[in-house]
Structure formats: C-alpha cells, structure tokens
Design brief:
The protein has 81 residues and is of the alpha+beta class. Helices cover 44% and strands 25% of the residues. It has a single domain, classed as Histidine-containing Protein, Chain: A (2-Layer Sandwich), CATH 3.30.1340.10. The chain has 3 helices and 4 strands. Helix 3 links the parallel strand 3 and strand 4. The protein is globular, with a radius of gyration of 11 Å.
Length: 81
C-alpha cells in the first residue's frame, strides 16, 4: 500500500507549480489537485483516477503530475480534450 500522505503532498506541490487547471476525477467526484484536503479524502477511497488538465502549460503539467502518481503506485489516466 502506498503512503498516501507522501503522495498527497507531492502531488499537490507538483500541481501547484503549474498555472493550468488540474482536476482529478475519482468515481463521480472532481477534485482540484492543488487542494491537499481534497486529495486526502479522495486518494483513500478510490481506485481509479482520471486527470483533466487545461491551460497554458498543460502538457508539462500532465507529464509531471502523472509521473508523481506513478511514483506512488497510483494509476491515473490522463484525459484529453
């Protein structure tokens, strides 16, 4: 089992470096990935995640945030337009 605390903090910190909107869809909820509290409640209760990224630096943001999810053993699917 992954250490969710470390994952949450690193994901939020990584997302915070970008100006793009980065939203995680887990089940039927949408969470701002820059929100540590939102991530805490979501990463504990869900198995599959979709990442929606929109903005001027979305390509870099998708790559960086996906990398952090993978590093912590969390599977995320990046959703395109």
């Amino acid at each position: 089992m992954t250490n969710n605390n470390a994952a949450v903090v690193e994901i939020a910190q990584t997302a915070g470096k970008f100006t793009s909107s980065i939203v995680l869809q887990a089940d039927s909820k949408y969470i701002d990935v820059k929100s540590i509290l939102g991530l805490f409640t979501t990463l504990v209760n869900s198995e599959s995640y979709e990442l929606h990224v929109h903005g001027p630096d979305e390509e870099e943001a998708k790559a960086a945030v996906s990398e952090v999810f993978a590093k912590h053993g969390l599977h995320v699917r990046v959703v395109g337009e």
